[in-house]
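Please describe the entry underneath.
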Amino acid sequence: MLVSHPNPQLFNHHHKPTKLGTLRPTNQTQCLSKLGFNRWSQRRRRCNSTVRPQSVLSVDDEVLKSAIKADRNSKNYRYDVIVIGSGIGGLVAATQLAVKGARVLVLEKYVIPGGSSGFYQRDGYTFDVGSSVMFGFSEKGNLNLITQALAAVGCKMQVIPDPTTVHFHLPHNLSVQVHREYSEFITELISKFPHEKQGILKFYGECWKIFNALNSLELKSLEEPIYLFGQFFKKPLECLTLAYYLPQNAGDIARKFIKDPELLSFIDAECFIVSTVNAVQTPMINASMVLCDRHFGGINYPVGGVGGIAKSLAKGLVDQGSEILYKANVTNIIMEGGKAVGVRLSDGREFFAKTIVSNATRWDTFGKLLKGEDLPKDEQNFQKLYVKAPSFLSIHMGVKAEILPPDTDCHHFVLEDNWTSLEKPYGSIFLSIPTILDSSLAPKGRHILHIFTTASMEDWKGMSQEDYEAKKELVAEEIISRLEKKLFPGLKSSIVFKEVGTPKTHKRYLARDNGTYGPMPRGNLKGLLGMPFNTTAIDGLYCVGDSCFPGQGVIAVAFSGVMCAHRVAADIGIEKSSPVLDAALLRLLGWLRTLA
């Protein structure tokens, strides 16, 4: 559940767009400069300035359509790349490509960037739409992918170190704080399970072996053979280490060293936060990235809120001479001769490019955007191996500050009574209190509580609006009561603001099938072997985000963005490539996926 997921009524249409932050519509033109129209200004601006979304083109639609049609017919595309969606994965891919010299257009359905890593404002509060636990934001190593992505476009954000990644409150009164310092965390965990000292050290030692191998490599596309072979010759041991663990899952490795069932259940909870599944179903590489980076680079919260990441990346994109268009709801990917060549918006506008990158889920990309196209065999195989992960019920609250003890941690995971409830809807609760770190997010004397728990779309269908609203309040009341009993006596009486969102909210505003937050394995797959990369069976079409390797989570989707940008750059000729080696490697990777 450290994966990003949206809030509730975050996009309530009764609120003006300016309520959602500093992003405001502008009447600047955003058209084809080669045809004599004005472009967005490419002046270098400071990174803390406002990114102004453009919702309409200020030229006659027919003139624009004619210009685009002529551009397409001449195959002299205005853009090298169109990116559908401005989630973190899409923005990282877009900015990386723009820095390399590509002309990029990002199309965002909403009025601000970020998707489930966005923000919204109500009554003096600035709420993170999704998770407040930010990985990849340190100043060292190679897995600080958010820091690197921002730096690539000349931006840097001030961050606040979080001394405790998460405080677990588990059955049988098991309480474990995951301290920023690894030695402190391990000492505490061993104190709870002294008879498993060696098992604990060996399991987390395996995690560090994988993390250190990853952290030593320059991270680019695993689908690009020149890079891949180069890294192997430079770091053969590290590459072989990762290859060895690629088909393995965290739970299987934990069981090699640990026998205590409650400690194994704790490892399940650790992995559930990463992947919304238990340890046996969580790829060991994914688990290791998160379980070690929280100590190596630490969790660092961006001042002003998580939404600042996407705003900064969008600003950097424009500064590089590329463009981002808001209120641009892509409904179709346009195909010509078996190749993806453009997109059509809900208002009828069309844009064309050499390549299309979809930051939508693979279910949305192939099930909705590619209308009339047969589902490629690779995607059929993917859907046989993976199902949609559950969505979330989210509660954003403002509370009186005095209700929280002075030593309260920022992040909490609550599973009170029974380990078997870990993966059940509403079974476990994740709580973020970002105002513990940044008090500027709320009015004076107030704290923000962001509560979320897994929920299924099926649980919210087939009811009237009145019943739907009543059920939201009822379920939220039960969740809040559990937190009041376990953590904060008197919590209900301290609430001064509350909004509740369901899977239907997430589906509607983030255009994610059933509100899902990526894939989860149907069974116990072999690690990451079955996870698709960025290329697809459709010529000219790439995917990026949480339904691509390596999966869910901020650091994972940023990695996906970096990999996608590198592969696309090679394919459009701005990075080195070898078509013969490319074809051979892609066939090999396709074969490996069949072994999952």
Remarks:
- The chain has three domains: 59-119+127-158+303-387+522-594, 181-298, 390-516.
- Confidence is low (pLDDT under 50) at residues 1-74.
